[in-house]
Design a protein that fits this description.
By secondary structure, the protein is mostly helical. It is built from 5 helices and no strands. The protein has helices spanning 6-18, 21-32, 36-46, 52-59, 72-78.
Length: 112
C-alpha cells in the first residue's frame, strides 16, 4: 500500500501551488516514479476539498501522453476548484456548550 511521505507531501504542495495541476502532477510522477493511482492519493493529501470525482479524473487522465484519457487541459479544468489551506473548524468549537453563546443543555439541579 502506498503511503504519502512527508517529503512527497511537501514537494507536492510546492509544485501544486506553482501552476496547473496536470503539469505539477506530471513533475511529481517523474520525480518520485508515481503512477496515476498514487498521484491521486498525493493530491488527496494536499488538497483540502478533494472528493471521489476528483480522484477519478486523475485516474482517467492521460499521464503518459498517449492520447488515451483526459488531456492536461481537461484535467486542469476539472481540478480548478481544489484548494489548499482552507480553514478547518475545530470540532470542539462546533459542539453545543463549548462556546460562550451556546445554550446550556444541562438539566437544572445537576452539576458539571
Amino acid at each position: 500500500m502506498f503511503e504519502v511521505s512527508d517529503e512527497v507531501r511537501r514537494v507536492a504542495r510546492e509544485e501544486l501551488m506553482q501552476g496547473p495541476p496536470a503539469a505539477a502532477l506530471r513533475r511529481l510522477a517523474q520525480r518520485f516514479g508515481l503512477q496515476r493511482t498514487n498521484l491521486a492519493w498525493v493530491a488527496a493529501e494536499v488538497f483540502d476539498n478533494m472528493f471521489v470525482p476528483d480522484l477519478q479524473a486523475i485516474w482517467r487522465w492521460d499521464l503518459e501522453g498517449r492520447g488515451d484519457g483526459y488531456s492536461d487541459a481537461e484535467l486542469d479544468a476539472m481540478l480548478a476548484h481544489l484548494r489548499m489551506d482552507l480553514p478547518r473548524p475545530r470540532v470542539l468549537d462546533t459542539l453545543p456548550g463549548d462556546r460562550q453563546d451556546a445554550p446550556d443543555l444541562m438539566k437544572p439541579g445537576t452539576s458539571r
